Amino acid sequence: MKKGSYAKMDALLCYTSEKRTLLNIGIADELNDALWGMMRNTTADGSIYLTILDLVKWDAAITQKKLLTGASINLMTTPVRLNNDNTHDYDFAWFLNPINKHKAQSHSGGWQEFNSYIARFPDDKLTIIILTNTFPSKPGLIAQDIAAIYFDNQLQLLKK
User: Residue 111 sits in which domain range?
Assistant: First the structure.
């Protein structure tokens, strides 16, 4: 990961590992018969470790056009035009739906009890990143509530 495009990012901390003796790292937990235990079954996407700082640097590299060209960013953040001439608001792994009436690019993910959500608000120069390591969690709703507070909108608390 220290090679290629990632080399353009300042001091990226991400790495891959199968070791379970890593210090200062959040490990995915699962509740099994009322006992918490470490998740098993590591796969390619489950053994890449990123910190919040890695994601902040990644976001800065996108924003500052260090990782992608302006043309690539524009392509990535423009709704795709389908063969029937309709557009779709999902393009290059980004949902392009407004959040709290602000232009947004968002993506969520989850695996082995880890759940994540990133929302980028390019016009507002705001990025919200939520990382969790316990299921169930709702990082997308947490991010939307943070955005509501930031944008001074009326906050609608989560209801079960």
Answer: 4-150
Phi-psi region of 97 (alpha: psi -120 to 50; beta: other; left: phi over 0): beta
The answer to whether 114 touches 28, Cβ cutoff 8 Å, is yes
Question: What pTM, to 2 d.p., does this model score?
Answer: 0.72
And the tokens for 87? 């557009």
CATH of the domain at 136: 3.40.710.10
Helix (H) or strand (E) holding 111: strand 105-111
Q: What is the pLDDT of residues 72-99, one digit of tens each?
A: 988 888 888 899 999 999 888 899 999 9
45 falls within a domain? yes
- Separation of alpha carbons 79 and 62, rounded Å: 18
Residues of the chain with pLDDT under 50: 1-2, 20, 154-155, 157-160
117, β-bridge pairs: 108, 130
Check if the beta carbon of residue 107 is closer than 8 Å to that of residue 93. Answer: yes
Structure tokens at 155: 């906050």
